[in-house]
Amino acid sequence: MVKFLFVVPPFWGHINPTLSLGKALHKAGHSVSWASMIDLNHLIPDGTVCYQFQDVESIQNEFDTTYFEEVKRKGQGVFGIQSIQYLYEKVLIPLGLYMGQCLPKIINDFNPDIIINDHQAFAGAICAVKHSIPYATSITAPAAITASIDFPKFLEWETEQIIMLQKSLGVTAETSLACSKNISLVFSSKEFLSINDIPPHYKFVGPLIEDRPTDASFDWEHLKKITLPKVLISIGTVFSTASKKDFFLKVIEAFKDANYCIILVADPTLFEKWPDNFIVQSNVPQLQLLPHIQAVICHAGHNTVCETMAHGLPLVVIPIAFDQSHVATRVEELGCGIRLKFKRLKSNHLFTALTKVIEDTSYSRSSQQIGNSFKKAGGIPIALKLLDAFTNSLITKEESM
């Protein structure tokens, strides 16, 4: 039995794959825990534990919902590479400092054999090195490995920020520790990201979507009665509340009374009344819904895009910030969907693009091809095999010492 500790940031797109992987590790007989700002205890198997950073005494929690809403509001007009810099300066580096103060107590309590840090949870890697614990990395966004190719100057700046964080947490390494040089699991495929010449420690295992727990309910009987084509619209958590309302007004104008059933991930209380052909929920069981869907409109978040293509569905992507532009470009280049411009978005653009990707079957065929590349990558079974090999190499190294 090996004791694995997942260290994750408070972003569901980064947390969700670890729920599938952690569940599989637990079934394989290992001891598994998470260190998170979000309470995950209702989503993880019995016998596993979620340590919440907020529960660590004497550390003030600066990252409540108010903080993140303010960050989103101020960053709403920031796009492209500047949005990634904003993310680092306002969220990831301060979050790393906060988590780095909390993690030692969690590590001392759980005493993990291996830490698996998300590539944006820098403190997981830093504390692993500080406590002489081997670590692996989970990568849920392609910017972590494409920045050096596309934006070398940004990579230099990013590395400087991480090194300064490392030093502030007591680790003097002059190189970034964010991604493990032993094993970094990439939840995508080389075919989708169009990456070939990269270091061997990056292991492409595809999106981990098997057997993922969810606490979202849904009226499946009602869905069965709907004969209209069903479309899922999800824009993640980047928008501020005010911007969400503006976007959803365009969605309403585009699809009210249209021959589509719109399943919209949104706060139902944003408007007093929604169109009759809309199903609006704050949280939906996305993976369970996708087999019933004909197309997806989203913000080009890497996880949502990969989950959609794993089901062979066409996309309309509207990138807003961070690495979403890169993901949207790949969707468009591969013929899996249509890319729209967020700043110039109009309701008729949404309707026209959706109709095209549904009626032109080439989009779904291209999506199926990428979905097949995810299956070939191996998913959970290959991720487990890679972690087993990593664990065995550590045991062999200890025995030879």
Q: What fraction of residues sit in β-strands?
A: 5-15%
Uncertain residue segments: none
Q: Give the number of DSSP strands.
A: 13
Written as H for each helix and E for each strand, in order along the chain, the element string is: EHEEHHEHEHHEHEHEHEEHEHEHEHHH
Rg computed from alpha carbons, rounded to a whole number of angstroms: 21 Å
- Strand order, sheet with most strands: 3-2-1-4-5-6-7
Rounded mean pLDDT is 89
- Helical fraction: 40-55%
Shape: globular
Specify the number of helices.
Answer: 15
Biggest sheet record: 7 strands, parallel
Question: Can you describe what's shown?
Answer:
By secondary structure, the protein is an alpha/beta fold. The chain has helices spanning 12-27, 65-74, 80-110, 122-130, 143-150, 152-168, 190-193, 220-225, 241-255, 286-289, 302-310, 324-333, 347-359, 362-377, 379-400; strands spanning 3-7, 31-36, 49-52, 114-118, 135-139, 184-186, 202-204, 230-234, 261-265, 278-281, 295-298, 315-317, 337-339. It has a 7-stranded parallel beta sheet, sandwiched between helices. A 6-stranded parallel beta sheet has the order 10-9-8-11-12-13, sandwiched between helices. The protein is globular and about 60 Å long.
